[in-house]
Design brief:
Shape: globular
Radius of gyration: 19 Å
Low-confidence stretches: 1-9, 141-163
Helix content: 25-40%
Number of strands: 10
Protein name: Circadian clock KaiB family protein
Pfam families: KaiB (PF07689)
Mean pLDDT: 78
Largest sheet: 10 strands, mixed
Distance between the termini: 42 Å
InterPro entries: KaiB-like, KaiB_domain, Thioredoxin-like_sf
Strand order of the largest sheet: 5-4-3-1-2-6-8-7-9-10
Order of helices and strands: HEEHEEHEHEHEHEHEEH
Strand content: 15-25%
Length: about 250
């Protein structure tokens, strides 16, 4: 592998935006050029049906990671920081960004992340204080197609249909290192397909009624909720072929 290939694979900027309830929407930008905070706020607005983008979450509920190639040592360096309200989510951040680093506490300007001030938004954005257990990977393609208004008056060019966004429920038993490994492994497989997706992690120990609704009898189980038909994959979530079938093929 040459240096250019290594940089394409190993270097990126990642931004994560949490809600007060613990939901997560994040992005990975290999070119480090996107203005992702606005897109992540718009993504939360659409997913949670908010009245407007929740820009007040920035920066208090954000975390960022930067991986770059040191020109002198030719080694990939990493710096990761999270604001104090989300610093406790380090295991989840390491899972979604495929890292094993200690996240630093981001410096906070006095008065910027005042809990009392942030709580004033609760009546206008109650969904943000609810626990939906969402882990959403926000793609650049979604940013361009969903949230940017067209500026050209020229006739549009027809493209091949894009895959529909998948809603996936991952049923696990407890939050532990095994669950983190499953989440990281699943994300690595999903990233290979270029499918937009929303992943909801459901702990059957906390929400047994959800396991009953979706007829989950063993963990881990991955359920494709939409688009229909509903399909499920039990056990080995590293099986790329079976996961691709779950995402694309109708039930027989």
């Amino acid at each position: 592998m040459n240096q250019a290939q290594s940089q394409d694979i190993d270097t990126f900027k990642g931004i994560a935006l949490f809600t007060p309830g613990g939901d997560l929407i994040y992005c990975i930008d290999p070119k480090k050029q996107g203005r992702w905070h606005s897109h992540l706020c718009a993504g939360l607005q659409e997913i949670l049906n908010l009245p407007e983008p929740p820009h007040f979450l920035v920066p208090c509920y954000t975390a960022t990671i930067d991986r770059w190639l040191d020109p002198q040592t030719q080694q990939v360096q990493t710096y990761a920081e999270a604001h104090p309200p989300v610093l406790r989510y380090q295991p989840l951040l390491n899972a979604v960004f495929r890292t094993h680093v200690v996240w630093q506490a981001a410096p906070v300007t006095e008065g910027l992340c005042d809990p009392i001030l942030l709580a004033t938004y609760r009546t206008s954005f109650p969904q943000l204080w609810e626990e939906h257990e969402l882990v959403v990977h926000f793609e650049r393609s979604l940013a361009s197609s969903r949230f940017i208004e067209p500026v050209s008056s020229q006739p549009s060019i027809k493209h091949s249909p894009q895959p529909l966004e998948c809603t996936l429920y991952l049923f696990v038993a407890g939050q532990n290192p095994a669950t983190e490994r499953i989440l990281q492994s699943l994300r690595q497989v999903l990233e290979q397909f270029n499918y937009p997706y929303i992943l909801k992690v459901i702990d059957v120990l906390k929400y047994p009624e959800q396991a009953e609704i979706y007829q989950v009898t063993a963990t881990p189980t991955l359920v494709k909720v939409s688009p229909k038909p509903t399909r499920r994959l039990v056990g080995n979530l590293d099986n790329t072929e079976k996961l691709l079938q779950l995402l694309t093929f109708p039930e027989v």
